[in-house]
Specification:
The protein is α+β, with helices and mostly antiparallel strands and 299 residues long. The protein has two domains: 65 residues, no CATH class; 218 residues, Fumarylacetoacetase-like, C-terminal domain (Fumarylacetoacetate hydrolase, domain 2), CATH 3.90.850.10. The protein has six helices and 18 strands. Strands 1, 2, 3, 4, 5, 6, 7, 10, 11, 13 and 16 form an eleven-stranded mixed beta sheet that branches. Strands 8-18-17-14-15 form a five-stranded mixed beta sheet, with no helix packed on it. A hairpin with a 3-residue loop joins strand 1 and strand 2. Helix 1 crosses helix 2. It is globular and about 60 Å long. The N and C termini lie far apart (45 Å).
Amino acid sequence: MRLTFFNDWTFGAIKGDRIVDLTEPTSHFTVIKPQDRLEAGITHWDQVHGDLESHTASQEGVALAEVQLRAPVPSPGRVLCMAGNYMESGTIPGPYEIDAFLKSPSSLIGHGETVVLPDAPAEVFHHEAELGVVMSKTTSHVDAADAMDHVFGYLNLMDVSARGINPNGNNSFWWQKSWDTFGPIGPAIVTKDEVPDPQVLDVKLWDNGDLRHDFDTSDMARKVPQVIEIFSNLMRLEPGDVLATGTNHLGLGPMQDGDEVTLEIGNLGKLTVNVKDTVSPARSWVRETVAEALAREGK
C-alpha cells in the first residue's frame, strides 16, 4: 500500500492517480494528532491491513490533482540521518567513518509544498536525494541480520542542507539540517512488500528538469540493515521513526528561489517541491553539481 495524509491531515491511500480516504476503517484508533493514526496503523498492521486494502479497492476516491498532499509521516519521534554513507560511484577508496545526525521532525513537508530558504549566511543550499526507511516496531540493539523485520516501508526523502554557516568556527550539522521545510518526504510511505530489495533502486533528482542526482542504492557503503543496526545500538527506535540512508554527494547542487525540484526513487513515486527564498533580492548560485564543479577544476 501507499499511505499518506492529504488536505486537513486526512489519512489516505494512493491508488494510481487517485487517493482514498481511510478515516472510516481507522475510526477505532485512538487519535489525538495525525501521527497517532499512522503509528496505530503501523503497530497493528497485521490486524488492519486487510481491511485497509479492501476499503481502498472498493472506493473510487478522488483525483490526486484535486488534493494537497501532506508529509506521510507528520511528526515522527526521530528523523535519523546517515552522513557519508555512499561510495561516491567508486571515487573514494573505502567507506567514510560512521557518522550521523538528528534532523528536526518539524522540518518535514510533503509533495507540492515549499522549501523556504531562511535569511541565514549560507554559502549555498543543497538538495540531497535519499532513501527513507520507516520503522515498524520498537527496535533496540538489533543485529543487521534481523533488522529488515523492523521495517514498515520506504519513502523519498530530500535532506535539504544549508552549507557554510559557521557561527562558532564549526561547520556543524545543527546549522545545516533542521530548518523548517528542510525535510521533504513523500508522496507516500510504500509498504515494504512493494519494495522487494531496497538496494537495487534508481535514485534520480531533477531541478527545473535538469537531472542532477542519478545513482543506485547499491552504492550504499552500509546497507539498510546495517543502518538500522547502527542507529538501534545508539538509541531506541519506535514505530513511525524515519531513517535517512545518505546520498551520493556527486549530484549535490544548489536550490534557489523559483526552482521546482523532483525526486524519484525506484517505484516510490515522485516527490516534487518548490523553492522560495526569504531574502530579497533572491540569492543565486552557479547551477552545477559537485561532479561538474570537480570536472571544471580538473579534479
